[in-house]
Amino acid sequence: MKTALILAFVALSASTNAGPGEKLPTSASPDIRVAQAQLKTLVSHAAYIVKERIAYTNAVLCLQKKTARSPASWAPGAKSRYDDWVATHIDQTLQIHYTGNFLGWHRYFIWEYEQALRNECGYKGTQPYLNWGLSAASGMEASPVWDGSKTSMSGNGAFINQSGLDVVLGGNGLPEIYLPTGTGGGCITSGPFVNMTVNLGPAALTLPGNITEVNPNGPLSYNPRCLKRDLTDELNQRFANFSAIIDNILAPKTVYNFQMQMQGIPGSGNIGVHGGGHYSMGGDPGRDVFVSPGDPAFYLHHGMIDLVWTAWQMLDPENRIYGKNAIAGTNTFLNQPPSENTTLNTGISIGWAGRGINVTMRDVMSTVGGPFCYVYA
Ligand SMILES: *[C@@H]1O[C@H](CO)[C@@H](O)[C@H](O)[C@H]1NC(C)=O
Ligand SMILES: *[C@@H]1O[C@H](CO)[C@@H](O)[C@H](O)[C@H]1NC(C)=O
Ligand SMILES: *[C@@H]1O[C@H](CO)[C@@H](O)[C@H](O)[C@H]1NC(C)=O
Ligand SMILES: *[C@@H]1O[C@H](CO)[C@@H](O)[C@H](O)[C@H]1NC(C)=O
Ligand SMILES: *[C@@H]1O[C@H](CO)[C@@H](O)[C@H](O)[C@H]1NC(C)=O
Ligand SMILES: *[C@@H]1O[C@H](CO)[C@@H](O)[C@H](O)[C@H]1NC(C)=O
Ligand SMILES: [Cu+2]
Asked: Where does the UniProt annotation place the signal sequence (predicted)?
């Protein structure tokens, strides 16, 4: 079977692939003729990167032009094939976060998304991931993911003065966490998704000033609006820097501790790399736990979540893939309401987003098992 390599969107400079099969030089050759060939390789690498990125965002735009499969009787707001993913995530949010299936469900979700880009939109490349550590170091707006260029994922939202307003998470029995606002806040202004319409939600959109916005007609109803972002370096740097990433891979010795550190232990004040990645994008639907896949950057963010999980699993594959540290938790958000433990036999359905097949947790535990055959590069 062909191995689908998942390449980094921002980590590409560290990749050893110039194009398919080509090795990138790592230091200048003193031999003038070899150095000439090195230059050629580097130039073709640059062209390859630009083409790959645009091919990816074009495939996403293609998915946004195709008709939804979700029945209008269930999700009248789902207009495009892309919306099928958003609707499924909205529908299942309280059964797929702070649960035993969190990691496996999202691995399957982004993998099926990649399959749709390939099978329905002719994409030939790999699913990129967003390396939060790099954008924490460079500043988000300087990152090729967020710089707003035509090879980016579109950039920041238009500036709105949110001075003095925090985003307040928690409540409803959970301690409040105050998060700073970012440097945008409004509609995105450039890049491939500048004309995109967000159709679904909000379901629980946290706005600056301790306000939560909910669509009174229900999150699956039609509510067309622009894509907003509020890039927040402070959150990227505080919760999803390289040390935070490595600590999440090396410190937790049980899967329970691993996934809790990643999502943020309630009451700790830390939102983890998962929360750090999400909230540093900000905006609508980025700050809405239910509707967040409505921002195309979601799939790059969760690619990085999957990379971190994979790295953690491979430090002890015997116990962390199918063994005693494979799965912990139940099938409801922090076990509210109480539900059964997630096991290798627990089913995963992604509804109308997928291809009508259901898998089990066992099928999604290894990146080279079940339906998968990929590695990270
Ligand atoms: C934002 O508004 C505050 C007052 O609410 C004002 O002090 C501040 O100068 C404004 N900032 C910008 C960048 O306009
Ligand atoms: C967005 O729409 C405007 C106005 O129709 C058009 O000029 C522009 O090319 C579009 N941009 C993209 C990236 O689709
Ligand atoms: C935020 O809003 C919630 C719900 O309205 C309220 O209980 C809480 O006290 C508010 N917190 C702050 C800091 O205003
Ligand atoms: C990196 O992240 C960790 C964990 O969130 C945090 O404690 C630390 O202060 C961060 N480091 C920097 C330099 O921001
Ligand atoms: C569910 O998991 C918990 C924690 O590992 C364990 O204590 C409990 O016995 C399990 N329940 C069942 C029904 O297997
Ligand atoms: C997949 O799972 C869903 C939800 O559990 C269920 O409604 C559906 O019938 C299942 N589909 C198949 C083909 O088993
Ligand atoms: Cu999710």
From this structure: 1-18
